[in-house]
Amino acid sequence: xxxxxxxSFEHAPIGICHTAGDGAFLQVNRRFADMLGYTAExxxxxxxxxxxxxxxxxxxxxGTARLASGELDCYAVEKRLLCRxxxxxxGELSVSLSPPNHGGRRYFIIALTDRTVxxxxxxxxxxxxxxxxxxxxxxxxxxxxxxxxxxxxxxxxENAVAHGAVADALASIRNRIQALSLIxxxxxxxxxxxxxxxxxxxxxxxxxxxxxxxxTDGRVRVRVDVPPFQLSFGDAQAxxxxxxxxxxxxxxxxxxxxxxxxVTVRMRMSGGAAVTLTVxxxxxxxxxxxDWRQDRGLGLRLVQTVAKTQFNGAVNLExxxxxxxxxxxxxxxxxxxxxxxxx
Length: 343
Prior knowledge:
CATH class of the largest domain: Alpha Beta
Number of domains: 3
Radius of gyration: 33 Å
Mean pLDDT: 83
Strand order of the largest sheet: 2-1-5-4-3
Low-confidence stretches: 338-343
CATH architecture of the largest domain: 2-Layer Sandwich
């Protein structure tokens, strides 16, 4: 039986060794020696710390102490081991403690797995991801600059024309460009892979709408109640367009001069994939006689078009102490909203 286990040790397809408490090699199998470019005899004249990268020598001190105290049965640690030819082997060491032998001595049993190829591939992928991240940031930074240039050009044209329908149309175009630029501004400031802060975007939309309407005395407020949502860029951008149109519409038309009030933006998820975005105001109600779905203005038509094309969703209006627009839609199960998050 002893010969059987010795043969199994010598010819195992993975590297196995036994070490003393100070790291001295007691026994090394052929695979372990071959992986490092040594002979078994030469390794048994060395200690494990001697062939460990200096930065990794202390990596498993805590583990061996916990093994010795009986707190752990085994543990695994990643180390860089120095090969005989000077190269570095990235390895994973699985370590356990033997039972006492007849003399009461115990030794560490170590299995070595070569992770060099895996580490190289991980490094390559990490480098590629960093390059893509840099390209992503640069792309959106350039796009944001283009948006700002368009806003400036439209503003110049506004200043060049007299007040009236043309000036109002140009201001409306500028407002929509600014709303779209909010998403790119968010991506430029934050981690491009993280959730877009819709709460901040909607708050900025409210501020811009009040400023554009010339309401600076605080008589109308825009309140945003949106919990964190993990949405795709396309979905977030569509919601910003919808919220911009509804908030701007409320600020400009629901509060005639002197009237106080509030516009509220809410967003909720219920029933798994069901999402509702609501923009409410307590201002002047849209007349019952008005067919708002057929309104010739661009704003409400744009809301309905984006809701339908992006989400296959419906837009509804309820009247009662103001106007309450809601957009209901369902997110696909592939949406980031349903993916696990790292806390």
